Amino acid sequence: MTTRETTPANDTGIANGIAGETLDSRAKALLDALNELFLFPWQVAQRVEHNRTWCCYQLIVDVPGRESFEFFRHIQPAHINGEPFRTALKFADEVCERMGRYLLLRPDDEE
Q: Is the dihedral of CA 40, 43, 49, 54 positive or negative?
């Protein structure tokens, strides 16, 4: 498996982020924890919907002979609660469960 070339997130997020608004410090801490924990890089975009700020975290892993594995997770910065590594471990559990199914089960289009 290889990682796709990605643009690392910076203090203003990535594409689809809020123009000119800096990434919440809790969201940045979670991104740092995810990138410390995983072999593959994460991206984050921050957006506002219905007067609430959301951070969308994305992990993309290219798997030879298959479509890329993509994982998306939205969270409000207030729900990170100052424990970004604990939140990163929760994300890791979700990713491992979904990626395990992705790798072990036959693709839908395969007969």
A: positive
Q: What are the pLDDT digits (tens) for 50-74?
A: 889 899 999 999 988 888 999 999 9
CA-closest candidate to residue 8, choices 35, 46, 38, 39: 35
SS3 call for 54: strand
Whether 23 and 13 have beta carbons less than 8 Å apart is answered as yes
Domain boundaries, the chain: 2-80
Report, as an integer, the average pLDDT of 31-39.
Answer: 95
What is the gyration radius of the CA atoms in the chain, in angstroms? 15
14: CB partners within 8 A, 6+ apart: 7, 43, 44, 45
